[in-house]
């Protein structure tokens, strides 16, 4: 594992008001960052927690918490940061706790902080990061005045009175803070608003179609969720590449994306369909049906669309022998595929996406039939009593139609399933 993270949550202070959420926020961040959505390892996380004194007992750090430490003094925080940044690859620092403004700059308040020495200057954190040899560094600050990291302090241009930055973001550093330099962060229902949104982004809310969550997309997710009268997040970056913070289940697989140039000869080309692509059509051809399933997966990922706006679904495109085209997003991924720039994503099986085994099409059709017959009267849609029969007595043609429909639904929900295993032409 070539990624490490220091996660700090301080809820109790000697000279500042206690907070409700930082401990839980730090644990929640570790739960998401330590592995990708498919459970492959992600960041090697070290927790540093500032809990109330009465909660700190000899048994607090049991054997299962090898990377957990209680008590966040200034010395301990600085030592942990120096260890974090003594690294060559990707390092992430997350802080949840008080921020404090002073004439010297903005501080991350430590448990032993006072009004005279609140804790560690945010710009001292940045200075350590700037001196680090880590390839990439991400700083996530959930505190009041967090946007002050990297801002000018009291340094002045001689003779002008203008403040100037005395720090900079060296290449590879990205900062995402909960607030602007002079604003406060808030908790709702005992949890930090910023971290709540951050967790939502990491769970997949900020993922692209390949399931990648970056710092930039995370900021976009958080920024849109906070209104103009709420705390405003801050994003600063000197990044020449954006390694994902986490991989989530993708909307479309890399293998499907790499097929785009084979289906569409150019980014603005149309692909013409006809009834032979629709599985329920008497003219259906197996090889065309498989291409149609690919196109449906691409449509779900917003990469293709009917060429004619009145074709609401690909079914009608095929039946009417019309065409489909790439969306602007699809054209972007077409170009990436053409240049062989798609790859490196973790694998997600269909069962991992939905955490369940793929049911067979006939079972789904049977459940649908029986549920429909049972519920129809409650929706004022009475079927003729004479036609209400158990699944076993459904006419064979009707049964095959329902199985074919179930097959199409399953091919969209479980796109990695081998189509031959659920192909309606294989049913008796």
Provide tags for this entry.
elongated; 3-stranded antiparallel sheet; 7-stranded mixed sheet; Arc Repressor Mutant, subunit A; Rossmann fold
Question: Summary?
Answer:
The protein is α/β, with parallel strands linked by helices and 428 residues long.
Can you walk through the features of this model?
The protein starts with a strand and ends in a 6-residue tail after the last helix. The chain is elongated, with a radius of gyration of 28 Å. The chain has a seven-stranded mixed sheet, sandwiched between helices. The protein has 14 helices and 17 strands. The longest helix has 18 residues, at 396-413. It is α/β, with parallel strands linked by helices and 428 residues long.
> How large is the share of residues in beta strands?
15-25%
Q: Could you report the average pLDDT, rounded to the nearest whole number? A: 83
- Report the C-alpha radius of gyration, rounded: 28 Å
- The strand count comes to 17
Morphology call: elongated
Which CATH architecture of the largest domain? Answer: 3-Layer(aba) Sandwich
Count up the helices.
14
Helical amount:
25-40%
Question: How is the main sheet built?
Answer: 7 strands, mixed
Distance between the termini: 50 Å
CATH class placement of the largest domain: Alpha Beta
CATH topology name of the largest domain = Rossmann fold
């Amino acid at each position: 594992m070539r990624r490490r993270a220091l996660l700090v949550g301080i809820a109790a202070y000697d000279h500042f008001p206690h907070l409700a959420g930082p401990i839980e926020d730090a644990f929640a961040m570790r739960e998401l960052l330590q592995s990708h959505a498919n459970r492959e390892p992600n960041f090697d996380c070290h927790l540093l927690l500032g809990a109330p004194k009465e909660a700190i007992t000899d048994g607090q750090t049991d054997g299962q918490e090898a990377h957990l430490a209680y008590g966040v003094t200034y010395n301990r925080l600085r030592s942990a940061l120096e260890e974090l940044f003594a690294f060559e690859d990707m390092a992430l620092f997350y802080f949840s706790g008080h921020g404090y403004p002073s004439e010297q700059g903005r501080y991350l308040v430590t448990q032993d902080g006072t009004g005279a020495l609140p804790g560690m200057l945010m710009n001292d954190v940045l200075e350590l990061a700037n001196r680090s040899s880590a390839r990439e560094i991400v700083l996530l600050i959930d505190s009041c005045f967090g946007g002050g990291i990297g801002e000018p302090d009291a340094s002045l241009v001689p003779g002008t009175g203008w403040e100037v930055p005395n720090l900079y973001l060296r290449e590879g550093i990205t900062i995402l803070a909960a607030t602007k330099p002079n604003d406060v962060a808030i908790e709702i229902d005992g949890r930090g608003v910023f971290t709540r949104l951050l967790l939502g982004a990491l769970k997949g809310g900020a993922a692209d179609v390949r399931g990648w969550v970056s710092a930039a997309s995370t900021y976009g997710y958080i920024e849109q969720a906070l209104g103009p009268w709420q705390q405003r997040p801050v994003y600063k970056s000197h990044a020449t590449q954006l390694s994902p913070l986490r991989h989530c289940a993708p909307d479309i697989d890399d293998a499907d994306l790499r097929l785009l140039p084979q289906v569409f000869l150019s980014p603005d080309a149309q692909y013409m369909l006809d009834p032979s692509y629709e599985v329920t059509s008497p003219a259906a051809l197996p090889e065309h049906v498989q291409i149609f399933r690919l196109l449906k997966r691409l449509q779900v990922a917003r990469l293709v669309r009917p060429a004619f706006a009145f074709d609401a679904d690909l079914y009608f495109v095929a039946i009417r022998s019309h065409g489909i085209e790439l969306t602007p997003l699809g054209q972007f991924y077409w170009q990436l595929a053409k240049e062989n720039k798609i790859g490196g994503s973790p694998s997600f099986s269909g069962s991992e996406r939905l955490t369940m085994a793929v049911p067979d099409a006939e079972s789904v059709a049977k459940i649908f039939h029986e549920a429909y017959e049972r519920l129809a009267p409650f929706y004022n849609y009475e079927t003729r009593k004479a036609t209400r029969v158990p699944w076993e007595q459904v006419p064979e043609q009707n049964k095959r139609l329902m199985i074919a429909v179930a097959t199409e639904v399953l091919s969209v929900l479980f796109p990695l399933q081998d189509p031959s295993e659920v192909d309606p032409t294989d049913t008796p």
